[in-house]
Structures are given as structure tokens and as C-alpha cells.
Design goal:
- The chain is an alpha/beta fold and about 260 residues long.
- The chain is about 35% helix and about 15% strand.
- The protein contains 9 helices and 7 strands; from the N terminus they run H-H-H-E-H-E-H-E-H-E-H-E-E-H-E-H.
- Strands 1-7-6-5-4-2-3 form a 7-stranded mixed beta sheet, with helices on both faces.
- The two termini are about 35 Å apart.
């Protein structure tokens, strides 16, 4: 019996294969068509000759955790404890999957705003949760009236994606205020904020949940080195969350990948 009877091969795999076969431009996956920064390649070459080939600490290399914490401070003026509030993951997808498995219980409802990344729903189903898919408005902004009507005391989590994939839409201050009002009304509600494109915005500045003090204690933020540094094949990302929440995520992470390569 299949746990995911309605899931086949991910659309990213299907479309990438077709693009290769047809010699077409591949718009199905979020990766760049220009080379990796030469400085990263040189660092990789240097480190390969050093003693970095055994298990890292479960939460991530201490130097990397400290650097991430410093980056969050520089970008968002948020103070984070590098060892208790930051977790290095094997890409953002593993961070999302592990978070949902750790925090969603059987029968919990989870709101997804469509169109959305296709990894959200399978993780919810495997956790025993109930996905509630809410369409975005025609301009890809959140329909807060519809979201509010779909939220109740059984709603355990809302998953947001800002900047949005695939539209590129970034949220406005009014959207953030609407989200904060929703979470204030439902104290059990957690936020999983997918911000993998946080450093790829142009006309309007991205507003990160890292800056929202009213809801930060109930938020898990997902970031991606792959997107930020255009090294998607390296499959590295990280989570930022309060210690009490990250503690539960780490319980699953240690048996999911233990540590990132």
C-alpha cells in the first residue's frame, strides 16, 4: 500500500529531462545558467586537501553556525544563538521536510498557498497531517480573507513562500500585518517561512520573518545556500527557529541525515 498514492516522479525531474532531450531552456528548476563564483571553487579545492572528511557535528560545523548567525545579524539585525537557534540542513527541502515531520501531528491541518513548491504536501501527508491548499490571488498576493476563512483551531501550521516561487512576487508590509493578526488569533499556529530566494529580489526589498518580532517565537525560517550562492548541486541550507522549536526539529534531523556533508 502506497503512503503517497497520488504522487509520481516530481515535475522537476520530468521537465528537466524533457528540456535536455529537446535542447530547450529549462525553466522548471531554480538554478542559474552561469558559473559558480571562482572563489567558492578555490575554497572547495583547498578544503578537500584538509581534514574535513568525517562527520560534522549534528547541528552543523561550529564555524559555519557562527557565520550564519553573523549573517542574520548583518542582514536583519536579529540576534540568534548559533548553536541553539540555527541548524544546517542538506538543502532547504530537507529542512522543510524535517520541520513538517517534527511539528505536524496526525489530523493537524496545514495551509499551503498555491502555486507552491511541490515538496510541501507530501511531507504533510507522511506526517499524518491534512493539507489545505489555498489559491493566491490573480496577482500572486495572499488572499487573506480566504486564508482566514480556512484557518481554525485544528490548523497547526501555515507555509509561506516569500519571495515567491514561481511568480517572483514579494510580500508587502500589509501582508505581514495580516499574517501577524492571523497568528495572534490562533496561538497554536506555527509559521514555516520558505525564504530561499531572500537575496534575489530586485524592485522591492524582501521583508523577512527574521524582522517580525511579534511572531518570531513561533516561526521556522528556511534559507538556502544553493539559491544564494548559485550552488544548488551542493544541497546545503539552514533553518532558523527558537530553541524550543528547533530542539524538536533536531530530534528528527539526527535520524534523517544526522549531519550535512
Amino acid at each position: 500500500m502506497s503512503k503517497l498514492p497520488n504522487v509520481g516522479t516530481t515535475i522537476f525531474t520530468v521537465m528537466s529531462k524533457l528540456a535536455n532531450e529537446m535542447g530547450a531552456i529549462n525553466l522548471s528548476q531554480g538554478f542559474p545558467n552561469f558559473p559558480v563564483d571562482e572563489r567558492l571553487v578555490e575554497i572547495l579545492k583547498t578544503v578537500a586537501d584538509e581534514n574535513y572528511h568525517q562527520y560534522m557535528p549534528m547541528g552543523g560545523a561550529p564555524e559555519l553556525l557562527q557565520a550564519i548567525s553573523s549573517s542574520i545579524k548583518n542582514s536583519y539585525n536579529r540576534d540568534t544563538h548559533p548553536y541553539n537557534e540555527v541548524l544546517v540542513t542538506a538543502g532547504a527541502t530537507q529542512g522543510i521536510f524535517t520541520t513538517i515531520l517534527a511539528l505536524v501531528d496526525k489530523g493537524d491541518e496545514v495551509i499551503i498557498l498555491d502555486p507552491s513548491y511541490d515538496c510541501y504536501e507530501p511531507a504533510i501527508i507522511l506526517a499524518g497531517g491534512i493539507p489545505k491548499r489555498i489559491p493566491l490571488a490573480a496577482d500572486y498576493t495572499p488572499n487573506w480573507q480566504l486564508i482566514a476563512e480556512s484557518t481554525n483551531n485544528k490548523t497547526a501550521m501555515i507555509i509561506t513562500n516569500n519571495p515567491h516561487n514561481p511568480s517572483g512576487r514579494v510580500w508587502k508590509e500589509s501582508d505581514m500585518l495580516a499574517l501577524e493578526r492571523l497568528m495572534a488569533k490562533y496561538p497554536q499556529l506555527l509559521l514555516l517561512s520558505d525564504e530561499v530566494y531572500e537575496y534575489i529580489s530586485f524592485e522591492n526589498k524582501h521583508i523577512s520573518i527574521n524582522t517580525r518580532k511579534d511572531i518570531i517565537d513561533r516561526s521556522i525560517i528556511v534559507s538556502s545556500f544553493g539559491k544564494t550562492f548559485h550552488i544548488t548541486g551542493w544541497k546545503m541550507g539552514y533553518l532558523v527557529a527558537p530553541e524550543n522549536i528547533l530542539k524538536e526539529i533536531k530530534k528528527v534531523h539526527q535520524f534523517n541525515v544526522f549531519s550535512v556533508n
